[in-house]
Amino acid sequence: MPWSPNTWKTRYVLNYKGLKYKTEWVEYPDIAGVCQKLGAPPTEKKPDGQPHYTLPMIYDPTTKKAVVDSWDIARYLDDAYPDTPRVFPAGTVALQAAFHDFVWGTLGEPVFMNVIARTCASLPPRSEEYFRATREAAFGAKLEALATEARWVQTEAAFGTLKGYLEKNGEGKEMLIAGEPGKITYSDIQVAAILVWARIVHGVDSAEWKRLASMHEGKWGRFLEQFSKYEAADT
Known about the structure:
Elements: H1 5-17, H2 31-37, E1 44-45, E2 51-52, E3 57-60, E4 65-68, H3 70-80, H4 93-121, H5 125-139, H6 149-167, H7 186-202, H8 207-213, H9 215-225
Helix pairs in contact: 1-3, 1-7, 4-6, 4-7, 6-9, 7-8, 8-9
């Protein structure tokens, strides 16, 4: 079952657009080799200057192009397949870039801290070892020590801020960024990716997922339900 919020962003975009694709499942230690094989560039450099390869990555056999980073992939798919629904409607790129910073800073950070240990435990052995070693080196702490009640307080406050943003669309239009039922933007997809990550890793029947989904009168469980039709692993 896919869990990564980053790859979920690309999966949601592909499914929303109705584009056919095949998933290649990759263990963490193998990501660099797969990307290099397909000619995908690194997304950034490691502290020691070495290239750092990450997922998601897509290879489009039509254009013979490899694209990395969920934002760049979404932009590419909008441009390469203009007859599909756009996730970056005209005139929204700069605004969605600003929203991206909110999502992966204010909104995503406390969720990340509360779910990272459970994420690690759900991985196959090779990936689990790699994930734990790299993340614990980065944070200087055991992953299990990162989940705290204070993070839950931050999570509720952050989603409360998002709730306020959505309510500015007006009554009956507060479930998506664009304010129109069914009109999904990349910004909506970013929020859904965080939520589906928590649901999958914690488990749909877990106390943790129920706590997150029920915040603000159950708004975030309902928000994610809008994306259920776009959760197929392959199309």
